[in-house]
Specification:
The chain is elongated, with a radius of gyration of 19 Å. It has a domain at 14-33 and 51-105. The chain is mainly α and 111 residues long. It contains three helices and no strands. The protein has helices spanning 13-36, 52-77, 82-105. Helix 1 (13-36) runs antiparallel to helix 2 (52-77) and helix 2 packs antiparallel against helix 3.
Length: 111
């Protein structure tokens, strides 16, 4: 006779938060890379390292959007409507990515 382990394995909460944040940051980095690396002749009025700011700010905004998705996913496990949560997460992610793009490119490509 063997004993069965009836304990359910608890999901790792850190992994549940970090994975969507990394995906959001990667989406933000890919998105801003099209704008930043597409500039052949930057304006001489722009600072020397003008690319650093958008390449940092936009992925951070994407990671925050991923964090919001993770929060809404947690709310779904507590009874919140899944469809509403995904749509709300998508809207918040797109608006956050847009705001991060504006903040990253202000003073250079965004006038």
């Amino acid at each position: 006779m063997t004993q069965e382990n009836n304990l359910k394995k608890q999901p790792d909460q850190k992994a549940a938060i970090v994975k969507p944040m990394l995906i959001g940051a990667a989406i933000g980095l890919i998105f801003i890379s099209f704008f930043v690396f597409g500039v052949d002749q930057p304006n001489p009025d722009w600072p020397k390292f003008w690319m650093v700011r958008p390449l940092v700010v936009v992925p951070v905004a994407g990671a925050i959007g991923g964090l919001f998705y993770s929060f809404m996913d947690y709310q779904c496990s507590r009874g919140f409507n899944r469809t509403v949560a995904v749509l709300l997460s998508l809207i918040v992610f797109v608006i956050g990515l847009w705001m991060g793009t504006v903040l990253g490119l202000v003073g250079t490509m965004w006038h």
